[in-house]
């Protein structure tokens, strides 16, 4: 069975590569009809992969061979960070036509990544109705429900019959982003219910919509943060969510494909912050741009590192009397930094996924403290035994071992506690980046280590 599956996959891959080569050959030889036929047989995602893989010369040909509708489908499937560059290399009027053919929310995402002058230029050349819809969405603050919603949905009035609703659906479905959920409005255009396509299909023709709709509506405010909305999609397994104003007027809907993009964006942002980078580094960033994004944290950490160095200088007398203590400074600092970063990653992941309520946060603190105690005790005992056999000094082994145990407990606790405190202060927990926690734990571990060494100096020098 497994061999048959492998053979099938190999055959599929060979056919896929052969088809790709035919498309590439038709493009290079400027066989327009042959290219269109083969290219449009591909899945839209595969089309976007093929497009991105081409040289600028070949992309110019693709712009000429495909219609604005077909190019819009490609642009939707391309990584958002790269898309604006393709619009700048094509004819501006063609770019405006492509944006007009795209779902409004996708067009807004692309325009938000362009310079203001380019946005104004494209909006001026676009179809007036499409431009008006996009301008409306551009006014909403970034990373809110309003900025990621689409206005292409089907809404029914509650007084309509099923047969009337079906007729409306046939007319509006081609332009709607999704028709699996139909939203029901009252005479003041307030959302009062929701209806699934299945409910509409199985209902009697003359029944009114208000008799078969569900009044249990989960909706979000237009100003709600996109990260919180992503958590709602995950918790409730929604395909779409209605977006309303403060009076419950239906403004738009957010679909699951938009939320997948949000999840990727938020994960990338958290990863960058955990690595000590102020903004995500884009593929086309110059070395200077990349350096600008990394320098803020590096400068802060540089001064913290200088503070750490000056702190070690305060224990110069202890080091002069027992020089062997210097050997274990990197060991203790490194262990504290590593365990703090582990606890930090666990805490940020739980907070970003909404896994911890108030009780959950307290359980997290207790669990991480206990974990730090266990790991610290094990590592402390192991290093104490190693030092005893290595340096033949039981007191040095005990001091280093106890220092590691105390450092790991404190580091694990701080790794869990700092993100929770930041979350409580409405600051992104990911700002408590790995390098920041590592440096703070270096300072704490050195204080513990040299504090113990100074206190029990008489045992080391005797």
TrEMBL record:
Residues 149-211, 213-269 form the CBS domain. It is a multi-pass membrane protein. Signal peptide: none annotated. CDD domains: CBS_pair_Mg_transporter. Keywords: CBS domain, Cell membrane, Magnesium, Membrane, Metal-binding, Transmembrane, Transmembrane helix, Transport. InterPro entries: CBS_dom, CBS_dom_sf, Mg_transptr_MgtE_intracell_dom, MgtE_N_sf, MgtE_transporter, SLC41_membr_dom, SLC41_membr_dom_sf. This is Magnesium transporter MgtE. It comes from Oceanobacillus caeni.
